[in-house]
Amino acid sequence: MKKKKKSIDYGKWGYIFILPFFVTYIIFSLIPLIDTVRYSFFEYYRSGIKEVGPNFIGMANYVSLLHSDMLKYGANTLILWMIGFIPQIVIALVLAAWFTDVRLKIRGQQFFKVVIYLPNLIMASAFALLFFTMFSTNGPINSILMSIGILKKPIDFLGSVFGTRSLIGFMNSLMWFGNTTIMLMAAIMGISQDVFEASDLDGCNSIQRFFYITLPLIRPILAYTLITSIIGGLQMFDVPQILTNGQGNPNRTSMTLIMFLNSHLKSKNYGMAGALSVYLFVVSAILCFFVYRMTNDNDPDGSKKAAKKRAKAERRKR
Predict the structure, then answer these.
(1) Cα-Cα end-to-end distance for the chain
(2) pLDDT tens for residues 196-234?
(3) With b meaning 16 or more CB within 10 Å and e meaning fewer, what string describes 205-229?
């Protein structure tokens, strides 16, 4: 009798290869996340050399945060994110459409891609320290403007609400527009050239082609960009922290939610920090859900909409 050949189970090797990821995720992400949620229901802080808690207090930490300046810092975070994101996405869309337009035949595209991506490689802390030095009262920007006669006295950029917020937004926009441009270029390059050639034959100009063809077809990447930007905006910390020396000046108008969270961690108030982390998680989840629903098109060709119209017309005839 012939012996049956042993079948090799290749499926188990897939589980073995992904096992290290899940082990790492559980140890370094999932367990700390659960522990953070647990601490949010406890009074746990340090007062001098005395450690108070952990004592279970239920939802008291969440209620205390609602009566604190958390909502004000949330509004600051939203304003700073919008100042940085709006010019970032506009510039990225323009550059992506420009570089991927085969009719323009732009030379040196690889060079330009490297140049626009370079700010993304610089550490945010180094970037913030550079701008802090450049735009300080005795910095080179004021010195140059005074030397050429534009200014009679130096401008305190970091002493005004508009100046500080504008610098933070400009830095965030400058650091991330290159990464966004590269992603949008990849999305546009994935569109079949036959679609663009057909639009040219139909007499579409560049603006019509951009708004009626390019934007609808890259909607998934736009949704991804917006969602990741919202999450990054809620986690905004290093740039305003260094630029305002951790104080959120002037008058705490540049204090973000993560800076507020960091102040609780520095004071060893782990209960309040845990509750604020849960708030951030819930807010980011809700915002991402709404963005996904608004930008996700379940009917790209309009067939479902047409079917609904036909169904309505048939009901009326009956």
Answers:
(1) 73
(2) 888 888 888 888 888 888 888 898 888 888 888 988 899
(3) eeeebbeebbeebbeebbbebbbeb
